[in-house]
Design brief:
164 residues, mainly alpha, two-stranded antiparallel ribbon
């Protein structure tokens, strides 16, 4: 199961223009968040994610990536419409990148908001509750304007059923 999952994820990310890179903290955070969103957008990987310092995190993913790093798949399964949906989503995320806010910042913010909106216990019922919880969990990390931008991107891409 592990190698198949790794190869599926690796191939998928490769086709979207991303490589699996473990060389920096930012690249490891970005990998976790891209895998998180790849699953949300329809790639069947079955990784379990829990809440961690930088938002959603999968220990299974980390273990498999370190175990299989460098193995390349010669068969690139086509995920069809899911791949195009992911390409659009990640393109919109890349468009948010600025000099002082890189891709890992936006991926962490987006995945953290999504995780809290969909899986927080007790259940958070609206955008304001999610923002308050995120600010409490990560004080000083994100500002309201960025949270609103991220929330709207998640809603636009139909990753949140909530509207505010």
């Amino acid at each position: 199961m592990g190698l198949d999952r790794y190869l599926k994820l690796s191939g998928f990310l490769n086709r979207l223009g991303y490589e699996i890179d473990l060389s920096t903290l930012e690249s490891r955070i970005s990998l976790q968040k891209r895998a998180y969103f790849a699953q949300l957008l329809g790639l069947s990987l079955d990784y379990s994610f829990g809440w961690y310092v930088f938002g959603p995190y999968s220990t299974e993913l980390t273990r498999e990536v370190y175990q299989f790093q460098g193995i390349e798949s010669f068969v690139r399964p086509n995920e069809g419409d899911n791949e195009e949906r992911a390409r659009v989503f990640f393109g919109e995320v890349n468009a948010l990148v600025t000099i002082n806010k890189d891709g890992s910042y936006w991926l962490e913010l987006l995945s953290s908001l999504h995780f809290l909106a969909m899986r927080a216990v007790p259940h958070l019922t609206d955008m304001e509750q999610c923002f308050s919880k995120l600010l409490a969990e990560k004080p000083g990390k994100f500002n309201r304007e960025d949270m609103e931008t991220a929330w709207n991107l998640l809603v636009k891409n139909e990753l949140l059923p909530l509207t505010g």
